[in-house]
Amino acid sequence: MSGEPPARTAGDLGALAGADGVLVIDAGPTAGGAPSTLVDARVAPARLLREGATPWERVLEFLHS
To answer: Does residue 39 sit in helix, strand or coil?
Structure first.
């Protein structure tokens, strides 16, 4: 959430993880550093909300594979 420390685990997302239209890919705890990359995949083409640890170009490669 804005103003809060970055989530390090899927559990840190709290109610957001269960919100309608939210997909969480849990790959385990983060190592720290840059926060997660946030993407709105409900629209076409997908829209970058915040670039973080995963570069946007890598997200696009995944979405187009």
So the answer is: strand
CA angle 65, 8, 26 (to 5 degrees): 35
- For 22-61, the pLDDT digits (tens) are 888 888 887 777 887 889 888 999 999 888 889 999 999 9
Q: Which residue has the tokens 């973080």?
A: 52
- pTM here is 0.59
CB 2 within 8 A of CB 16: no
Which pLDDT score, from 0 to 100, does residue 60 have? 92
Residues 31 and 8: their CA atoms lie apart, in Å, by: 8
Region label for 35, one of left (φ > 0), alpha (ψ between -120 and 50) or beta (otherwise): beta
